[in-house]
Specification:
- The complex is a heterodimer of chains A (309) and B (375).
- Chain A is an all-alpha fold and 309 residues long.
- Helix content of chain A is 68%, strand content 0%.
- Chain A has 16 helices and no strands.
- Chain A is globular, with a radius of gyration of 21 Å.
- Chain B is α+β, with helices and mostly antiparallel strands and 375 residues long.
- Helix content of chain B is 71%, strand content 6%.
- Chain B has helices spanning 2-32, 36-66, 70-75, 79-84, 87-103, 106-110, 114-130, 134-139, 148-178, 184-205, 210-220, 240-246, 267-315, 333-355, 371-374, and strands spanning 224-229, 232-236, 252-257, 260-265.
- Chain B has a four-stranded antiparallel sheet.
- In chain B, β1 and β2 form a beta hairpin.
- In chain B, α2 (36-66) runs antiparallel to α5 (87-103), α7 (114-130) packs antiparallel against α9 (148-178) and α9 runs antiparallel to α13.
- The chains are: A mainly alpha (309), B alpha+beta (375).
- The A-B interface holds A 15, 18-19, 22, 24-25, 28, 35-40, 43-44, 47-48, 50-51, 131, 200-203, 260-261, 268-275, 277-279, 281-283, 285-286, 289 and B 300-301, 305-306, 308-309, 312, 318, 320-324, 342-343, 346-347, 350-351, 354-355, 357-365, 367, 369-370, 373-374.
Chain lengths: 309, 375
Amino acid sequence: MVNKMNNEEEKATLFISRLLSNPSLNYLSPLQKEDQIVSFLELNSEQLYATLSSPAFFPGKPWPEIISILETRLRSVINSMVDEGLKRFLFEKIDFSFLSGYGKSPGQSEMLIKSMYTFILKSLKTFDGRKDFGGSYNALLCKLPSRYINAVFGAQSYIHFELTKVQRLKMSKEEITNMIRATLLLRPVVHIYSESVHDRSTGLITKQYSDKVKASIKKDLPLVPEVLLSSAVDSNLSFEKYKFIPTTGRLTSIFNNMARTIRPNMKIDRGASSPEKSWLSVGRRNYKYYGWDIKMLDELYRFSLENGW
Amino acid sequence: MEKLKNFFESFIVIAILLVLVQTFLEDFAVLAGWNWDIRRNFIITGFIFDSLFTIEFLVRYFSALGKGQAGKYFLEGRGWIDFLASIPLLLLNSGPAFLSLLMGGGVVFGLGSMLNILKIVKAIRIARVLRLLRILKIFRRIKYTGSVMAQRHITKINTISITAFVTTLFIFTLAGGYLSLPNPESTAAERYANEINTFIGLSNVGGISAEEQAAVFGAFDKDLLIVKDKGQTLFSRFDNPTYSLLFGPGDFAYFEKGSWSFFFDIRKLLRIQSVYNLLFFLVVIVLVLSYLVYYSPHFALTVTDPVHVMRRGFSDSSYNLEVEIPEKYRDDDIYVLADLYNKEYLTLKQRSSAERGAGPTMSDLSLDDIQDLLE
């Protein structure tokens, strides 16, 4: 029985590895690859079933069982890829020294990072958490926070004013960038507490749920500073309804949503706008629907235009 | 069979490229006054190429005829270009030139009157214009754009303008013959006739020997090459090795009157003709290059690129790029449509894709990618 299971796992791994090694997926982030493969399996179920139910793969098994084996294997492979990337971001790339401004000692910061890592892995087990994390992870891969915060500090305009005067962050450009990176990674944890609490079409949550989640996280992650927590959780609220959302939270929401459709190193068709410019332009027209800060979108759009992003 | 067809098509494309070079060099050789040995090779290769394209046309035509599609090939498949760029050239241009080469130029030029010589020169000039149509043959075979629509439109406009240009030249040259418009050939022929009549008239007066008279005429007219009386040479501008080196059968005109024979150097006339041919050739090349280098990218920028982006946006749920709208073309119909696509369609698409659960309904993977596993 165990041998048979191992055998099936090997076949599934082989099949999934083959799909993952396809050159057309090379430029995608791990979670985008997962999306592509799941879509491929669903779209081609009839043709694939004929082969996958043959003696060479999973003889006699119905399609739902086959796809379940394959998707489980796929998630496992992707998880290990994401885990590797997540560790790299949390333990190497993001400088958490900004936490010292919130009274956290180096030891406390290290503990916080470790507990964040566990929490984020938990969020990856939920469907919505996985989707949400895909955006955040891609935003970091595409270096959205560093590029745009750099431009924000260069322009010294609306977003800069909101960050420094309204949210009153007494931090350097690099520290703010790192804070937004951390916020992006923490954002999907709202899905741990209850799945499908958000509006399915917009992904937005209610103020009541936000408060509840913040209270729960405070209990589970006592070391997380209030500013990071409200940025991450409130980034799921609509700015149209709740004007108190921190600037870092508003930026996180935009970066997360923007990065969901962007493919790193994507070849842009001649005659088309760049992915970031396109997304920001469309986002400016959908800002009410998704609860984004229109002035922020306008400024980010201008940066994408000026810098050819 | 498919491989053979591809080989045949590639072979024809290479032949067209070579024939364009040959056409240019053939005229350039005349203009530059290259030795006859070199120019003779161009006449031979011209004949070979014209024969090849005639065979190509006949193969295509009879192949289409066998399938009952001769009319379709001739009109829609543009067999008319294949026809015009082959048979008339073989019959009117390279064929007569090659024949004169085989038989020694005197046969073709020497047997006729001055009017006949003019007619031959004219016919050759008219036919040579048709050679330029071969550029269209190669143009339609080169895949210079990924868009079928762009390819068709640019090929069409190219065909129209080059055919119009060549046809106008053809008709104008033909009409020129009937309207007795002044041209270098008729002027030269008139001059030769006057000179021959004067020479014969003066020879009857006496007081100066025929050799001395021929030498005086030769000194005044640099085109006069040889004067003979009763088969005896009275004057010759060059020695025989020089004639062999510099002159081909078509480079001189030979006239007989009574016991007198006159040979005139007509290379100047041929040079004038070559200048026109090179000019026509360059006009066509510049037209084709303008379409390829300037108009083709312009067409892509203002028509096919925005259409391609919109088509991908409509058919691929995960493709959300806006059409880039150049300011100066903002009012073009296609960009008005693109503006609607950007503002209305993509806006709603972003919302509806979120409603579906943000999962793509298309995949970059295809079954072909794992065909070996499926087999």
